[in-house]
Design a protein that fits this description.
Radius of gyration: 26 Å
Number of helices: 1
Amino acid sequence: MRNKVLLLLCLFLTISVTAQERRTIRTDNKVFNWGATVGLKSSLPIINSLTIDGKEANNIQTHYQVGYTASLFGRINMRRIFLQPSISWHHSSSELRFLLPSGIEGDEDILDPLTLNMTFETIEIPVLVGYNVIKEGPYGLSLMAGPQLKYNYKTDYTFNFSNSQNRFGVNRNYFDINIVTGVAVSIWRLFFDFKYEFGLNKQDSDFKNQNPSESTITDISFDKRINVMSFSLGFLF
C-alpha cells in the first residue's frame, strides 16, 4: 500500500511538472507579444562648437540631468531572434556652462560661467532586432540593436545672463536618426533593460533672443550630436 501511494505521488508530480513546462513553453514561444516600459533617460549632448554673436565661447562644460520615458512595443518572435518595433515618449534636460568670449560689447565685466538650460520632449520610433542569448524557463538574457527615428516636437532654451533670464527661439532640425544598442534581463514576464543611443546626424542650432532689450547678446549658435542613455523596467504580455 505504501509503495502504491509513493507511486501515485511520483506520477502526480511528474504530470504537474510536465504540464507546467508545457505552459511555460507556450508562454515563451508566442509568435507575437506586446509590452510596456517606464524608465529613466538622460540626453548626453556632445557640443562641437558654441559661438555668441560670432565669437567662440570658452571652457564649455556639459551637465547632464536625468529625465524619464515611457513606451509601448510589439515583439515578433522567431525562435531566438525577435523583431521589436515600438513608440516611446521622452522628456529630458541638460545644461551648458561656459565663459563669455571676450569682445562682447557691454558685457566685458562678466567673468563667472554662464548657463544655457536645454529641455527636450521627443517622440521616438525604434525598430530593434534582438537575440535571446539565454532563454531557459522563466529566465532570459537578450541583446538588441537597430535604428531609431526621433521627432523633437518640443524644445526649450533659456539663458541665465546678467541676473536675468533670457528665452531664445531656435531654428532647428525636428528629426534625428539614432542607432540603439541594448541588453535586457528578464524573469518570467518582467524585464529590465539598459540602452545606449548613438546620434548619427549633427544638429546645427541658431538662437535668436526673444527679448533683446534685456541683454546685448542677440545670437547664440552651436552644433551638437545627441547620445542618450536609458534604464527601463518593463512587462511583456
